[in-house]
Design brief:
By secondary structure, the chain is of the alpha+beta class. It folds into three domains: 1-37; 38-93, no CATH class; 95-155, no CATH class. The chain has seven helices and five strands; from the N terminus they run αβαββαααββαα. The chain has helices spanning 2-36, 50-56, 80-88, 90-93, 102-108, 132-140, 142-154, and strands at residues 42-43, 63-70, 73-77, 115-122, 125-129. The protein is elongated and about 85 Å long. The termini are far apart.
Length: 155
């Protein structure tokens, strides 16, 4: 009987040790994971190259294998030359307000990603808005929303 009790006691201690080890490992992962994983909001410009858009004012599909992450967005580039231009001057090519609709953010306090369909360039920056109503509001009073978008980018 003592032998059975000893085996049960050993199993109980092993189980408790294993459980503590597992909980400790989970804690370590939970604490370090935010630092290991880069948070992204998705692919910018539906995968089109921001450098070609800015420099040539045309949409050109980028290569997902030639990419950079900037302000939470993944940008695809047509080639290595375009990627280098972006890395050298990301503010020239990156989306204003990190791709969010500056009108909705300012007026409703919500983050809504803009759509390429409602995108345009204003004073050298690319803006994406969520819908036609936001685009019309922005175009009616651009200075108000540009100021907000610039403040958003600097946060």
């Amino acid at each position: 009987m003592d032998e059975v009790a000893s085996v049960r006691s050993t199993r109980k201690r092993w189980f408790q040790y294993s459980l503590r080890s597992l909980l400790l490992a989970m804690l370590v992962v939970a604490v370090t994971m935010p630092f290991l994983v880069e948070r992204t909001h998705g692919v910018a410009l539906e995968g089109c190259c921001p450098v070609i858009l800015a420099d040539s004012n045309r949409w050109s599909q980028g290569d997902p294998n030639i990419a950079e992450t900037y302000q939470g967005l993944i940008y695809h580039f047509a080639g290595a030359r375009e990627r280098e231009a972006f890395v050298h001057d990301p503010e020239k090519y990156a989306l204003a307000a990190s791709g969010y609709d500056a009108v909705v953010a300012k007026e409703a306090g919500r983050k809504v990603l803009g759509k390429r369909r409602y995108g345009f360039r204003y004073r050298g920056r690319a803006y994406l808005l969520a819908d036609r109503a936001s685009m019309e509001k922005f175009q009616a009073s651009p200075a108000e929303y540009v100021k907000f978008a610039d403040a958003w980018n600097s946060d």
